[in-house]
Specification:
CATH class of the largest domain: Alpha Beta
Number of strands: 14
Radius of gyration: 21 Å
CATH superfamily of the largest domain: Glycogen Phosphorylase B
Distance between the termini: 13 Å
Strand content: 15-25%
Low-confidence stretches: 418-422
CATH topology of the largest domain: Rossmann fold
Oligomer: single chain
Mean pLDDT: 92
Shape: globular
Largest sheet: 8 strands, mixed
């Protein structure tokens, strides 16, 4: 098939932004021709990645079978709503003007549906007998704006009405909709989306990075955690993760002399968290800054427990952070300070410990119990999580599902005469 991939985010961006690139390369490895339409990489720092400069458009290749069209945008990952809106809207407009033409000849398009403004180029690409598109919902809009803390109160209410109507339009025009959690499907059904249009396809990990890796003693020594029980949080440092409470708990468990807490990543709450740790004189916490994505396997190898944290919010119960499958694929134990889908998967897999979000007393108790259980017990949990990942959440399983759904909508629209892949 000739497959289009439409996403504001793409490699070399990291974290959840790496998801489209993993899919594009996986589809190409299966013999498909892939055309990507994306922006200039600037996530999560808000600065354009080295080797790129923003111009109207540019074309490049990501391997022999993935063509990439990049279009202009306003680079930003600011906590200010105005800057973030410029980032979202400029990509949507640029993609519509300078990019959708490269998608007109594909058989079907996979759309990374976050932010919701990507709906504009999606609609234009499929208009006038253009290729059908599969919308893959990674963040539920407009809910995710409130969850992120970008806007609140009356401002949110006004934006929610407009964005809600816009999302309803984009849902109607999509040929199929994939959701990363069953909870998202249930919510969309309540909002009037036909259940027959909705499909469960969980988010995948980049298995070229995330796989069981031998303990890296040199790195452990460099970071000062050799022979320590190590808890890692790696990812976005934002309001939705509730990491201020993590520092409160680190203060409470100072008596655990062998415990070290590593925080890797960047985001809107980075400076605030560092100041909080300094004020509290936390000697058991170390900030590592933005860790190279390609080196995450080494970092995970020296950890005993990995934190997945989401604040207490209704949207969090249907959210699936990309870090959870990444940790499980790597064979490490999870401390899920979250509810909903995250809690379900960790409990079901036996791959870690679940604590109600923002329950500081239980969170402290969980860390103390994990510490007392020891490294070998954590390793057995990690093995259980890895087994579950490969049975239910693996890249191969998810790409199979995306590929088959793209084939279905392409054939339904008469765009593809290629046989379904066996």
């Amino acid at each position: 098939m000739r497959i289009g991939v439409l996403s504001q985010w793409y490699s070399p961006e990291t974290g959840a932004a790496a998801v489209p690139g993993v899919l594009a390369r996986s589809l190409a490895e299966r013999g498909h021709q892939v055309q990507v339409l994306t922006g200039y990489p600037n996530y999560p720092t808000g600065k354009v990645a080295s080797g790129y400069r923003v111009r109207r458009r540019m074309d490049e290749c990501d391997g022999p079978a993935v063509a990439v069209r990049r279009v202009a945008l306003y680079p930003s990952h600011s906590p200010k709503i105005g800057s973030r809106f410029l980032n979202f809207s400029t990509f949507a407009l640029s993609a519509s003007v300078s990019g959708v033409n490269v998608l007109r000849d594909v058989d079907a398009i996979w759309v990374y549906n976050s932010p919701a403004t990507v709906g504009l180029p999606s609609l234009l690409a499929s208009a006038c007998n253009g290729p059908p598109h599969l919308m893959h919902i990674m963040d539920l809009w407009p809910d995710s704006i409130l969850f992120s803390g970008l806007v609140e109160g009356r401002t949110y209410d006004a934006m929610a009405r407009l964005l809600g109507a816009w999302c309803e339009l984009t849902y109607r025009r999509a040929s199929a909709i994939a959701c990363t959690t069953q909870g998202t499907i249930d919510l969309l059904v309540q909002r009037g989306v036909p259940e027959t249009k909705l499909h469960y396809i969980p988010v995948w990990a980049d298995e070229s990075i995330y796989f069981p890796t031998p303990y890296d003693q040199d790195l452990a020594e460099d970071l000062g955690v050799i022979d320590n029980f190590t808890l890692l949080y790696a990812g976005n440092l934002g309001g939705a993760q509730g990491l201020g409470h993590l520092l409160d708990v680190c203060h409470h468990v100072r008596d655990l002399s062998g415990l070290k807490v590593l925080i890797a990543g960047s985001g809107t709450a980075d400076l605030q968290l560092r100041r909080q740790a300094e004020t509290m004189q936390l000697r058991n916490v170390h900030f590592l800054g933005q860790w190279p994505a390609e080196d995450m396997g080494r970092l995970l190898s020296i950890t005993d427990l990995n934190l997945v944290s989401l604040s207490d919010n209704p949207l969090a119960s249907v959210t699936m952070p990309s870090k959870l499958p990444a940790i499980m694929a790597s064979g490490h134990a999870v401390l899920a300070w979250a509810s909903g889908e995250v809690a379900r998967i960790v409990s079901e897999s036996g791959g870690g410990i679940v604590v109600e979000p923002e329950n500081i007393a239980d969170f402290e108790r969980a860390i103390r119990e994990a510490y007392a259980s020891g490294k070998e017990f954590m390793a057995r949990m990690g093995d259980a999580g890895s087994t579950y990942y490969h049975r239910h959440l693996s890249l191969n399983e998810s790409v199979d599902a995306v590929e088959k759904l793209l084939q279905v909508i392409a054939e339904s629209s008469g765009r593809s005469d290629l046989p379904t892949r066996n």
